[in-house]
């Protein structure tokens, strides 16, 4: 109790009773066409006596033996397993909630995702490669335990391994721990978690509730997951002219931007997404000079898709727009697709070229072979090989599958795994910088770390060089210039630092707009797609792609904002971004400038919400529930006997007050003529 009191620095009664926990992250509710997943508390929050779980056998205490249910179970990440969580789910009447301590070090493996990601919205189905559907031949994520797709009717929060967590454990040891199997004595240390979700059942239900407008300010209960795709091309397109382009052939180079974890907005996606899009950004920069000096015959379009974790939101939207004349090209303009998947964890000297065995049986076989040859011939002098898998197997989960659903397009997915993922932490909070072995000498300052070229950066630089060379060849570029194309290891290492260590660094500050500087934090961005639109990763990739592929201009800030008023400038052909620039030596003012680039944002919201088909089987239908607030706190709770006695005393006091008031009322009413009488003077008569 004394330790609780020592943390209280406020005079309010509430803060003398409760200790608020600040470093917590909840599991929230998500919904799709058929069901709901995730976690929630009751509307008033859920409260339980804290029990620190020490082993799976120790579950007996909160689930059956403990005398003071319900329990709030605190467990280390090593015990955050499917077996333990499902046992607590099945006995949820004795479990008020779960708090998971996320350590600073990673376990041997952990993936709360499914074993077959996006299996129902890819290209493989009963009508297309049925023997390849549902991971029948290759289980891509065998470590997946599926926890992220379970529903828990109690709150589940994560805690950092810090002083707050140590305080909770000490509170448990001081008040709750059973000694020799005997019940602990009151007062007991308890925790209360608030994470009540407004949406229920599924997406059709919550979207229907959104449309019920009984008030001036109707309360929304859920929102579609979505953001923006980022794309750019080496030759600009008129942003107001959509549909098919005659005599236009385009090579698409793609990567995904998003990731997820069990807990809301703690996904770092180092291998799952960052390795791929950093490689593609570096390849785009490597192509800038050569494509200006010797333009290839085909255009190259760089596409960065958002929401791919949730049934390919971004890629399915771009394909939908292409099919319906809402994009600057259509599917018939696509020559081929090269997608960069997970590429940072290759063991040995091989990366793998995955293709679709079904489409390769038809006329696209030669086009796929050409792409394979262009990739394999681009590795000269780089110390690794690109090989095709030894067995016939489907494409791994990839955006390319959504293009193939619409049309047989030649394509390759470049990845570091031949079959199952090398990533031991797929779609979990452990897929972070440490997973890529992104380490720095301890004596380096943050600015020195930003410039320090790690082994991971060197490796991805080589991959980016191969990608850039292959794209240039695939687009019909000048063969004599191919070996001059090289990615810049300094740029790669700066991007890895900014995306996986700290986004608030001098380079990211220089390439961002002044009004966006507040999105830069001394930590990595969150890669969960969310519902807010224009997330931090989207904005960072937009500005980086513009700076790496565009050109600095002499336009002033006002001209940059209104370029159409100038000759030879057109917002229809280019985007114009005013960026902060660097701080020159011996100066305190930034050298800001205007970047002109053919980089655009387009919606990455599922077509299901455009069409109003909330139960669609063809498109993603994922939504996120709304909530009022998220909160966690601990306090000491008195015994039930004392609580009951307190309520009895309160009840008796209320009865006494009520009885007294009735007596007073009765007395006043019976004596009203005496108490309230007044002598009237006779009225004067007037005649």
Give the secondary structure arrangement, pairings included.
Elements: H1 2-6, H2 13-17, E1 19-20, E2 24-26, E3 30-31, E4 36-39, E5 46-53, H3 60-65, E6 71-76, H4 82-90, E7 95-102, E8 151-152, E9 156-160, H5 163-175, E10 188-194, H6 203-210, E11 222-224, E12 226-233, E13 250-256, H7 270-293, E14 299-305, H8 313-323, E15 334-340, E16 350-354, H9 365-376, E17 385-387, H10 400-406, E18 411-415, H11 446-451, H12 455-474, H13 489-500, H14 506-511, H15 536-549, E19 551-553, H16 557-561, E20 575-579, E21 593-597, E22 599-605, H17 607-611, E23 623-625, E24 631-637, H18 640-670, H19 672-675
Parallel strand pairs: 4-8, 5-6, 6-7, 7-9, 13-14, 13-15, 15-18, 16-17
Antiparallel strand pairs: 1-24, 2-9, 3-4, 3-23, 5-10, 10-24, 11-23, 12-14, 12-22, 16-18, 19-21, 20-21
Helix pairs in contact: 7-12, 7-13, 7-15, 8-10, 9-12, 12-13
Domain Nicastrin small lobe: 26-199
Family: Belongs to the nicastrin family.
Protein name: Nicastrin
TL;DR?
This protein is an alpha/beta fold and 687 residues long. It has 19 helices and 24 strands.
